[in-house]
Write a structure and sequence with these properties.
By secondary structure, this protein is α+β, with helices and mostly antiparallel strands. Helices cover 22% and strands 21% of the residues.
Length: 104
């Protein structure tokens, strides 16, 4: 691994890329590596299409935005589940984004 310095003179690790930039990406299924005789459906069950009722949350978000605009709110806070690709909903972690209005 090579070491370089960025524009502010901090050490930066340079890791070589395994795939050349011009090569096409490939995708495929990976084995689940479960013990012999086990089935994916038996272990995980049927997974939900989304972790949350998206149409309801989209409507609530729109109403919140309209309410904030009507009050001339200076801040908007988004709270959502984290990690975004969690298999099961209802984890204990949250991702919070706070935006504030900039006039001018």
């Amino acid at each position: 691994m090579q070491r370089q310095r960025d524009s502010e003179e901090h050490p930066v690790a340079v890791v070589p890329v395994a795939r050349p930039g011009h090569a096409e990406l490939q995708s495929g299924a990976l084995p689940t590596n479960l013990p012999h005789g086990w089935s994916y459906e038996g272990v995980y069950g049927e997974l939900p299409q989304t972790a949350t009722p998206a149409p309801l949350h989209a409507l609530l978000a729109l109403l919140a935005l309209l309410g904030a605009a009507a009050r001339h709110a200076a801040r908007l806070t988004l709270v959502t589940c984290y990690p975004f690709d969690a298999i099961r909903p209802g984890g204990s972690l949250r991702y919070v984004v706070v935006a504030r209005r900039v006039d001018g």
